[in-house]
Amino acid sequence: MPSDEREKKQIARNNRREDKPTTPRLPKSAVWGTCLLMLGLFLLTSIGYFGYNSLNSSAPSGDVAAATSADSPAQKPQSAPTPSHGILERLRSVWGSTPKTTEPAQNRPQVAEQRPAAAPSEAILQAALTPSDEKDAPQAKLSPDLEGIDANANINVIVQFKGGLNEENLDLVRAQGGNHLASLHLINAATFTLQGRALKALAAQDQIAYITPDRRVSGALDSTAAAVNAQVAWTSGYTGSSDTGIAVIDSGVSDLPDFYGSESNHVVYSQSFVPNDSSTSDVFGHGTHVAGIAAGTGKNSTGSSYSRTFKGIAPKARIINLRVLNQYGVGSDSAVISAIQKAIALKDTYKIRVINLSLGRQVFESYKLDPLCQAVEQAWQAGIVVVVAAGNQGRNNSAGTNGYDTIAAPGNDPFVITVGAMNTKGTPGRTDDVIATYSSKGPTAIDHIVKPDLVAPGNRVVSLYKAGQTLASLYPINEVLNSYYVTGGSSSYSSTYFTLSGTSMATPVVSGAVALLLQQHSDLTPDQVKARLMKTA
């Protein structure tokens, strides 16, 4: 949504203050300009000439260790640089840009450049041009949260391989005592149970690209639909269709009347990726609510007996239910990656054009290395629009950032559409809308990418639930009163509708909007969908 004009003016004033030069201005003359140009060329030539041997005598594989902050995650080794490449990479890392790494996924979008810091001092330049001494290269392949792990601890890890997933690579891990749990062909990786003592030896193998823990992930409409002008699309005949499938990767979807059209169930496929639990029903209550926002039909609140109808944004779209969160709303990276892998495999069968990820976790490394980010990028490249929750850490000041730099993974990936939450104040009009205080704020950690991409209604959103679900038991007061939507209804609680808040609720609003857009323009690519939504927001 567009920012408030007063905020824009204030930001502009702040930017002007920040940009104001603190040194005297030089006289404006051609003579001065020519002198400065000649001086600059001389300095650049000198650096290139005298820095050549120094840069090319540094650590193997062209690592840029000297210029990398101690607080930054270790990067993968690069191929041997040319003299000019090495100088530029070191200077970029000193001035604040992200060092280039060997990336598991290809064809990355360009990220907007960061504004460079002030010109580096002579000491900083000298440090940048000093040969690095990276003696512990294998550590670059271990994620930061694996450093210092108990040597005797058994830990589930995701191992990304170079050159593909094959038996030879799997045997490298087995040789270190690893127990193979699952293969993640989508990102050339596999999950293993491994002892902590084996990690460094495994990371030393040339065929290993990166190792991370199999981390935990968790889940982050009447006025909601009106606030995004869904009725305009509905009256034009765009309500989603059987030609548009939305893969809801969440805690499952329960069987409810609001997922049925006039003829059939709109949930066309279900599968569980929760270990030792094949049920695809929603025990937690999060996925059902999310699916209802995206594509609920409003069947249980439609007709003359109802004063309000709780209909999803794309009520005729089809739902592909891929369950990854257990009854407590907790899952794992590997489960989510497996579900994304399945969504890509089912893309043509069920016309999957959208993946909804109302879940996430903390960022531990660059999106270029994170296995969860690698998976969403593969879905994007396969032609599926991936919509991800920004996270609900906007009030988190534990790092002294006032909630900034808190975007969750995989919402930190530049490809995906990352969604923040706004508060509609319970009205269909947009003049009183504000950003929800809990909505996570950018830029992203480590890579410093501007996020979120969009905001949508996410505060006190009414959608579906089923009695007995964990969230209903934890928050019974969130059940909607019958009198709120039933004409002449009692003050008893509804057995169908429930209120939740969060970027998890805002995300399916955008997923539904994507389904409507693709119904009208089915030939759009994910990049084009993202561009149109951001331009017209």
Task: Outline the structure in words.
The chain is an alpha/beta fold. It folds into three domains: 42-105 and 120-133, no CATH class; 138-214, Peptidase S8 propeptide/proteinase inhibitor I9 (Alpha-Beta Plaits, 2-Layer Sandwich); 217-536, Peptidase S8/S53 domain (Rossmann fold, 3-Layer(aba) Sandwich). Helix content is 29%, strand content 17%. It has 14 helices and 17 strands. The protein has helices at 5-19, 30-56, 83-95, 122-128, 167-174, 199-203, 222-227, 230-235, 286-295, 333-345, 371-381, 470-474, 503-520, 526-536, and strands at residues 154-161, 179-184, 189-195, 208-213, 216-218, 245-250, 267-272, 318-323, 330-332, 352-357, 385-389, 417-423, 434-435, 454-457, 461-464, 479-481, 493-500. Strands 6, 7, 8, 10, 11, 12, 13 and 14 form an eight-stranded mixed β-sheet that branches. The chain has a four-stranded antiparallel β-sheet with strand order 2-3-1-4, with helices on both faces. Helix 9 (286-295) links the parallel strand 7 (267-272) and strand 8 (318-323). Helix 2 (30-56) crosses helix 3 and helix 10 packs parallel to helix 11.
